[in-house]
Amino acid sequence: MAEKVGVYVCHCGSNIAGKVDVEDVAKWAGENVKDVAVSRDYKFMCSSLGQKLVEDDIKEHGLTRVVVAACSPHLHEKTFRRACSNAGLNPYLMEMTNIREHCSWVHKDRAAATEKARALVSASIERVKFQEPLEPMFVDVNRATLVIGGGIAGLQATLELADAGYPVYLVERQPSIGGHMAQFDKTFPTLDCSACILTPKMSEVGQHENVTLLTYAELEEVSGSVGSFKVKIRQKARHVVFDDCTGCGICVEKCPRKVLDTEFEAGMGNRKAIYMPFPQAVPRVPVIDTESCIWFERQKCRACEKLCPTNAIDFDQQDELIDIEVGNIIMATGWEPFDTRKIPQYGYGRLANVYTSLEFERLCNAAGPTNGKIVLRDGKTEPKSVAIVHCVGSRDERHNPYCSGVCCMAALKLGHLVVEKTDAEVYSFYIDMRTNQKNYEEFYQRLLGEGMRFVRGKVAEVTDAARKPSEQGKLIVQCEDTLVGRQQRYPVDMVILMGAIEPQRDAREMGLKCGISCSMDGWYTERHPKLDPVATMTDGIFVAGTCQGPKDIPASVAQGAAAAARVSGMITKGKVMIEPIVAKIDEEGCSGCRICNNMCPYNAIEYDAEAQVSRVITALCKGCGTCVSACPAGVISGAHFSDRQIFAQIQGALWDAWQPQDAASQDAETVPVSAP
Amino acid sequence: MSEQKFEPKIVGFLCNWCSYRAADLAGSARIQHAPNVRIIRVMCSGRVDPSFVLKALAMGADGVMIAGCHPGECHYLEQNYKAMRRFGMLQHTLRGLGVEEKRVQLVWASAAEGQRLAEAIDQLVADVRELGPLHWAGNWEENGERLQALEDIVHEHQEAMEVTA
After folding, report:
1. Which residues form the domain of A212?
2. Does B5 reside within a domain?
3. Do the Cβ atoms of A106 and B78 come within 8 Å?
């Protein structure tokens, strides 16, 4: 039986009608394209009257297919699917033609735009005839959520959800939660003590009845899809029995092996082989670093074991795999500092008194290795002058083209700390000063008032090669002061490099595990850069904090809370719809060649060795269609994007090349009606 | 149709997540480009069966664009790499069929690269305009014969490849 297609061409005010002759397109489709029963144009199809037009026609004319030529399906596909559904037509029997974004908005020539619109409408009509009714699938949403990363963004997300009464698993790879914020001394622009505002949140998470905290643990594997993810977590061996440890710290005190702490103290201080990263660590359970522990090195010592009052030390402990089930996942994996050694002319690692910003944070910190005294590497000399170099590895085509966003403010903060704690002169070498959040510019003005000196220019070199007696024993910062237009040499005692914020080294790999992608720079890609900044293209996976792009603490907190709000919305709703756009294998025709098995990135195709055929696990299939086009026997069909549908669409798109225009079929039952 | 007035007809297969959205963005940003590409949405560039391209050329298209997410940014993790490999095979086949390389182009455009996609469209249209009409559709009188002839060519080509393999 021939289909009865209804075609609706939208004016979108003058957005479409201004460049496309919509009346002509509607009239042409009604008169010339086979199986078109109704063809209309209307001012605003997405308005309730426009939708009603479609609904009424479906009921009145018994339309079996609908084509709406308007804007992008990403905007209004849902609207018109709902309209069809309301009128009793399966929503997947509707096709949208994009004649706004892809046509009227991008072409100046009215005749050419109209011709293209005809072709696009014709393509949709031919395609829609082959579309099949599909039923969306609904799955229950597991109330538990997994948060990956225990930095400030992850902590915020965890607390929001846990306070709302939902169970949360928080996975952190370090022995303690807290993230980079725990390392900082002060926070800009308010100069709050970082630990003072962070640690209450940490202990709240640690004690929350709805939070299962898994520290010193790694994400191993994610399977399943939105609503019901199955996750494997590797709990690395702490060598301390979690439940038995009281956190008294005797083991740490008595451990005879001291090593450089390259993580929390950024190489500025030491820790023991059994350690808690910092005094306020959550949980207060130490870990044994097997690389430096004397027992693991030469089977001697065991001092901690002998002295532990609760016998919590277990040298034989192994990694453990934990299986959990969650409905949603929030990625808050954070950032890593740029390796400043990559810019050798700045001398980091070669010149003793060149510091990274993170090292300097520890130096300033009252709980840090010098108890907050700002001194040079010799441990006693207070610097007389300090240079702060901006944009080290950011806004640099050789390293990272992007702006790390927070370093200008961080540099101002560090400058303030130097001014406050020492009598040193502070120079800031900047390209542009970026202080564009609430109270940030005011902070900059304050530093100008405090006597911090600003030199506009990118530093060429930091060297210890003196040219004149006044430069002897100093670090010389060579820079063109672009406001004066002159090369200058600034002899200083200490240089701080504001290294770029970079994605975690394994961000891409972690993203692959969860099925989300990264930008070229390695930041996780959000669903929409402006309107959907916490969701990702994979349903049920959300991003928060710096893993999505460089940002400061307030922005990370906001994003953490936003991600949690999205997740709690999903949980409250209880069910989630899954598009029925999946692949299906006709087992009769399957030869069991298994070519498709390796095509699927989600392992959604399993091979039945007994029946010697492959099968699609519908719940895992995301509908990309790669297996469909790979099947040599052509027995895999992709719902809503079948070969037949696409072939018909190609044929329709080329209607004017494919058949002489006057020979277009006239025999369709058409009811040419104009808009009401 | 005189040579000067030749307006290429091009079919574009754009992936739902990156390049289709790039075209949407080109629209919202009003980035003007040539009106010759008729866009067909597929879920992923990995869905583009080489036969879609051959079909389009056989139906009278003068050129074809396949566009997907950048390598490493595929919504489906890595399916655009499969599109890339298939494209290599397709190019080989098209060479055998005497179709100029520039008629069928593979383009990467992220959802943020409306400008890039618009430029790629203009480039493809300019390339095809220079090459002139493909006239594949005109080489066979009847529809059935045309497809049969095309299928024969593809078949022969496959056999030839099997022999050499």
Report:
1. 137-220+327-334+504-578
2. no
3. no
CA A6/CA A145 separation, integer angstroms: 44
Q: For A52-122, list the strands marked E by DSSP.
A: 65-70, 94-98
Nearest CB among A101, A109, A650 relative to B23 is that of A101
Q: Does residue B84 lie in a domain region?
A: yes
SS3 A137: strand
CA nearest to B112 within chain A: A529
Residue A391 lies in a domain: yes
> Which of B6, B18, B59 should one mutate to test binding to chain A, selecting the residue with the greatest count of A CBs within 10 A?
B59
Q: What is the CATH number of the domain that holds A17?
A: 3.40.50
Q: Do B8 and B62 touch, CB atoms closer than 8 A?
A: yes
Q: Are residues A202 and A274 in the same domain?
A: no
Of A526, A551, A578, at which residue does a domain stop? A578
* Whole-prediction pTM: 0.79
The pLDDT of residue A662: 43
Instruction: Specify whether the backbone of A7 is left (phi greater than 0), alpha (psi in -120 to 50) or beta.
Output: beta
A629: contact with B, CB 8 A cutoff = yes
Structural domain containing residue B143: 10-164
Nearest in space to A315 (alpha carbons), one of A343, A330, A294, A334? A294
- Residue pointed to by tokens 């002060």: A186
pLDDT in tens, A19-37: 999 999 999 999 999 999 9
- Chain B residue with CA closest to A20: the answer is B35
For residue A157, being part of any structural domain is answered with yes
